[in-house]
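Lecture 7 notes: from sequence to structure.
We start with the chain below.
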Amino acid sequence: MKNRRSSVTPVFYISLAIAFVFILWGAIFPANVESVLGTINDFISNKFGWVYLLAMTGFVVFALYLVISPYGKIRLGKQDEKPQYSYFTWFSFLFTAGMGVGLVFYGVNEPLTHFHNPPVTEGGTALAQQEALQYTLFHWGLHPWAVYAVVGLALAYFNFRHNAPLLMSSALSPLIGDRSKGWMGTTVDVIAVFGTIFGIATSLGLGATQITAGLSYSFDAIENNLFTQMIVVIIITIAFIASAATGVNKGIRYLSMSNVVIAIALMIFVFIFGSSITMIESFMTNTGNYLQNIVSMTFNMNSFVGDRGFLNDWTLFYWAWWIGWAAFVGSFIARVSRGRTIREFIIGVMGVPVLFSAIWFAIFGVAGIESDNILGGGLYSLIETQGNEVALFAFLENYPAAPLVMGIAILLIASFFVTSADSGTFVLSMLTTGGSLNPPLKIKLVWGAILAGTAMVLLLSGGLSALEMAMLIAAFPFTFIVIMLAISLYKALRSEHGIIQLEKQQLIFESDYREETEKELAEKREAFEETLPDEQPPEIEAESNEGKE
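Predicted structure tokens for the same chain:
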């Protein structure tokens, strides 16, 4: 295996050129962007929606298999290596990079919307409430974290175990061989870059609209319009670029830990002043319903009913969002997971965030629906007239110390906004510099500006709908890359496990057995090493070691 020199790669220039053309197109012809995105989005949703459903199901099955398989004992690093970060720090990274912005945005909005417009039952009923919470957890449960786990595990395994660059193309080496270093590898990394750009841009758009709505709702002098949203995007962009400049172990780390503390505090506040017993009972009931009905929800394409509104607007959008996010979230999770075993990695990535999401929606979902019932449907009416982004603030207005709490909520959204974009900027820089774990500041600045520009163009072209359409489109080609990553990872794990087992047998059995199997072991090692990606340059390996706690 040969070393490659770390530098700005062709992926950077190709991705930058395409992103610049897109931003220019959106700035000059925003209506045309919305029209084209809408046409492509409708085609993918109606013709290939089943691809998302089958792929996401496959990722869940594959991840759970790895937990119970003998491969689970393999460590992401040397076999005696300790984890790079503590559990709390690690979970903080997972939570804030994975879906922090989305939880705050949809915590009240999604359960309430499903309550009035459930996919099956009649709206506004007790059954509708149960169905609303069940489908909300379905969208935020095992499926998204499974795709994060698959991408993150593949990258972490090849990087920390076999010293390969932290790149999608490198992780595909066991499957596509030397083509991972040619045009095919470059194409894979460019697709990953664009999945990241549109994934982050969607989050930036959600965050900007919600922050603007919160400020407008709290202060009459501030208008909730496109201009204010643009100002918010610019301010937050400056903040996350400043954070990204400090690196993972400083800005991103401390912001992530602060986010978790503030989010938990807000959740406890709503729990104490809300219907606490109902929330506890809802958590237990909803978790049971989710686990009981996960198979039917997973494969439901509404093929006999014919109404695909809920499927297209919610489930397919979410699956596309999670797949699009997987490029950057998976890369970031891999970056901070050195020293974990495969079993520990998957349980941590899929277990803890899903449990937190179940608790979060049980509290905010129940509280939101109850507030709406008390107001005679007033909360949902407000959402319909003023937009989804006002849901959280209209809901918090009914709680004690409302101005203070809404201010804290705005701060939390902004902080999540910063950490998500911060992580995304870091990953984009890493993907375009050959897998560098500490990319140059100038590259981070470039990608920070591109993310801000993309978010603004999409807001200008059609608001949240344009953001959502762009996300679904960008995620489609990356779906197949994630499938290839899973196959590549399984192929490598199977080969390495065979070598490990033979090495153990040599230690147990007599010297005659060792002599008989020595040639077989050497051949297996040679064949396995030939499938591995090139090792990262010494300077990048040094960067990795410098990042350890």
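Points to note: Confidence is low (pLDDT under 50) at residues 1-6. The CA atoms of residues 108 and 364 lie 5 Å apart.
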